[in-house]
Amino acid sequence: MAAKVYNKLVRDRIPEIIEASGKTYVCETLSDEQYIEKLNEKLLEEVQEYLESGTVEEMADIDEIMHAILGFKGIPLEEFQRVRMEKLQERGGFKKKILLKEVSEDE
Questions:
Q1: Helices (H), the chain
Q2: What confidence tens digit (pLDDT) does each residue in 69-95 have?
Q3: Under a CB-based contact definition with an 8 Å cutoff, are residues 46 and 13 in contact?
Q4: Which of 70, 82, 90, 105 is the most buried (most CB within 10 A)?
Q5: Segments forming the whole domain that contains residue 62
Q6: Residue 95 φ then ψ, to 5°
Q7: Structural domain includes residue 48
């Protein structure tokens, strides 16, 4: 039987799910440097999947990756939310659907 090669970061329970299906697998534990690199790759992958599907499931995957990155970097969720709210208050959100087309310098 041929093995399918993935070389990508997966959720923590994936190995036990694979094993329960009767398949075998090969995994390794990443170094911190490899881990953040793979988290960043996974974030891009999940964003692309969301752009293609538009599903809430893909949005949840993006959120899970964000939580993993915050945890790795030692940034409490409360700090992330504080920064988010500061930006929201200072610059607003995206509810008004504004497309900035051009800015001219007044002379």
A1: 14-20, 32-53, 56-73, 77-91
A2: 999 999 999 999 999 999 999 999 999
A3: no
A4: 70
A5: 32-90
A6: -70, -25
A7: yes
